Amino acid sequence: MSLKIFITGKPGVGKTTCLLKIIEKIGREKCVGFYTEEIRENGERVGFDCTTLDDTRCRMSDVKFDTDSRVGRYGVDIESFNNVIVPYFKKEIDNDKIFVIDEIGPMELMSDQFLSIVGDIIKSDKTIFGIIFQNEHEKVDLIKEMEGIKILTLTEENRDVICEQIYNELKGIDISKSNNHKKECMKMMSRETYMNAAYIVSQNFSKDPSTKTGTVIVNKKGEIVGIGWNKFPDQCDESDFTWNREGAYLDTKAPYVVHGEVNACIDALVNNRGMLNDYSLYVTLYPCEKCAQVVLQSGITSVSAMSYKYYDLDFSKAATNLFESAGTEVNNMSETIPDINDETALKALCEYAEKYNPSLLENFKGDVEL
Fold this sequence. Notes:
Layout: E1 4-8, H1 15-26, E2 31-41, E3 44-52, E4 57-62, E5 70-71, E6 74-76, H2 78-92, E7 98-104, H3 112-123, E8 128-132, H4 138-144, E9 150-153, H5 159-170, H6 181-187, H7 191-205, E10 214-218, E11 224-229, H8 260-272, E12 280-285, H9 289-298, E13 302-307, H10 314-326, E14 329-332, H11 343-356, H12 362-365
Helix pairs in contact: 1-5, 7-11, 8-9, 9-10
């Protein structure tokens, strides 16, 4: 059974102190979320920082901020909040840990992205412990009225009792069992399905007329967290370059194209907001040595490839030497017959796009029923 407990109360009554005390007693490793800290200069409160439980911090508001978004005397940096807190929750949305939210208040709710993802978390079967604004506020009131919400008002007189009550309720939550059927389905996906996902990426996005490549990176939960294909750097005008393979070196694609493995690693590192330790990579063409270097530096420990057409060339041999030295698991999937209509692969790519890059969603939907 999931719980959705929020505390409220007057400023300075000790809401965040109570929240942090409970997190430490339960164990930080069992929680995901963020908390808000006052920033003081010469004893005066001048702003607020938001800090995730993996210790990423952003300055959300400050009296010195000259922004159009304001709460009282504080300028609010919505962009900074959206760049840190929103991606963090998107990354953790399928986690079975206790979700900690400090707080849902006027500043945070200036972010429509935050409001949307908090709504999704509350509607889910997640256990939530948070702080919510006490006064009347249109958006806050809508959240307070959502099904399953339990709100406790903290005062100086009852805060010790309330904190102990909340701790006793939360400590019995079993976070080891997943109620997320979607994630269980993802865990059961075969290597062939992930390779089909990489193939779908190659066919949807690569503009190389001779060698279309696609890559997907899969985390330990079985979720696709990064995709990539061979393309010119995003900041460049691709019309300045050619896809020719033959000719003088500078007149071919070779010195300019970024391979799919590198693009996928960058994508996954950004989405994961950290290293890709023990993740798996699926690629339609066996990597070159430069891609192998990036793959290994990212923390990936398993590589599966479908085509080995350049395997006898030195750059592929060098990649093999690197993988062998690192103890990387390499799976030869050259007998795989790619299926661009693999419905399970398409669903997995849709899940990736919905979570990390909605602009790509239409490329994967087709006739797939989500």
